[in-house]
Design brief:
Number of strands: 3
Structural class: mainly alpha
Order of helices and strands: HHHHHHEHHHHHHHEE
Strand order of the largest sheet: 1-2-3
Helix content: over 70%
Radius of gyration: 20 Å
Distance between the termini: 21 Å
Length: 321
């Protein structure tokens, strides 16, 4: 009984931690990229990756955390997470810069649909029909909201949908790697950033993003500097929270927590940043998606930890466990 209570506490605590971190990073990135007008989301992505590497390296050095030392076999063990990780980071930051907060969070609903699909094909897990229905309700609301979005930006929409694909793949493959127990959660975080920081730096350098970032006029502004450092720190905290929540729960549960967080972000975003333009169709679509989120959350979290997840095995009928 005590073990069950401890497990339940870990699941809830890790979910709450991820929800808070996810909310804070969206607001921090939005303020850095939009309110202060920082010109390069790629430069900010490099800052977040560097922060994660430095923090984990120092933590291992003083004995706070432990993960395997570097070897050439590490890359094989962690693949394809580095590519998924960087795609998730870059597309997410790019979409944050291009779209207003409510549309950003509504389009992020598609990550849940993509996660259900990925879990079915990669982990052989199929969500119950009622969960599938609520997901499609959220998607319908997102489509209605987007149909009357006066701040429509095709590049931003594409970036967010690609971010959704990367988020789904990242969650599913993270769960798969954690179950293998080759690297542990700290090893996954450290080597994800380590393997991709040089390619990302080279890409940003040749695109002129490094130069744009360094030439930004407000580096001498202590308030902007504090905001930039906060975004970098929260980027690392978010990645840790995602891995922790996925470790104690599942990739789908992690996305559900993101939906709960987005309920708050959606409405706050209508007042924060000044880039949301009210229109009835958009507002109705947002609320349809929010209603789907509430039903989805109720259906999912009212279940016991074992859940009623349907498992699909190759060449076998679907079974419920």
């Amino acid at each position: 009984m005590e073990e069950d209570v401890g497990s339940l506490f870990s699941r809830i605590a890790s979910a709450v931690f991820y929800g808070v971190a996810s909310f804070m990073i969206i607001v921090a990135n939005k303020l850095t990229l939009t309110s202060y007008g920082f010109p390069s989301f790629q430069f900010l992505a490099l800052g977040q990756m560097t922060t994660g590497i430095v923090v984990l390296f120092l933590a291992k050095l003083v004995g706070l955390v432990d993960f395997p030392g570097f070897s050439f076999g590490i890359f094989v063990k962690i693949w394809p997470l580095p590519m998924i990780f960087i795609g998730n980071l870059l597309f997410g930051l790019g979409g944050t810069k291009k779209l207003n907060l409510p549309m950003f969070t509504i389009l992020r609903r598609f990550a849940i649909l993509f996660t259900m699909i990925a879990e079915y094909y990669v982990l052989n897990v199929k969500a119950p029909r009622v969960v599938q229905f609520t997901v499609f309700l959220m998607i319908f609301g997102a489509i209605v909201a987007a149909s009357d979005d006066l701040t429509f930006d095709l590049t931003g929409y594409i970036m967010i949908l690609l971010n959704d694909v990367c988020t789904a793949a990242n969650g599913v493959y993270t769960k798969k790697k954690l179950e293998a127990k080759d690297l542990g959660k700290y090893g996954l975080l450290f080597y994800n950033s380590l393997f991709m920081i040089l390619p990302v730096f080279a890409f940003a350098f040749f695109n002129g993003e490094i130069e744009k970032g360094l030439a930004f006029k407000d580096w001498g502004n202590p308030w902007f500097l504090l905001q930039f450092l906060l975004s970098c720190t929260l980027g690392f905290i978010l990645n840790y929270a995602i891995v922790l929540c996925t470790h104690h729960n599942s990739a789908l549960t992690t996305n559900i927590v993101g939906v709960l967080k987005n309920l708050l972000v959606t409405y706050i975003g209508m007042f924060l940043g000044g880039d949301y333009h009210f229109r009835w169709i958009n507002f109705i679509g947002v609320n349809i998606s929010v209603a789907g989120s509430i039903i989805y959350s109720y259906v999912t979290f009212r279940k016991p930890p074992t859940g009623t997840i349907e498992i699909k095995k190759p060449d076998q009928p679907v079974q419920t466990v």
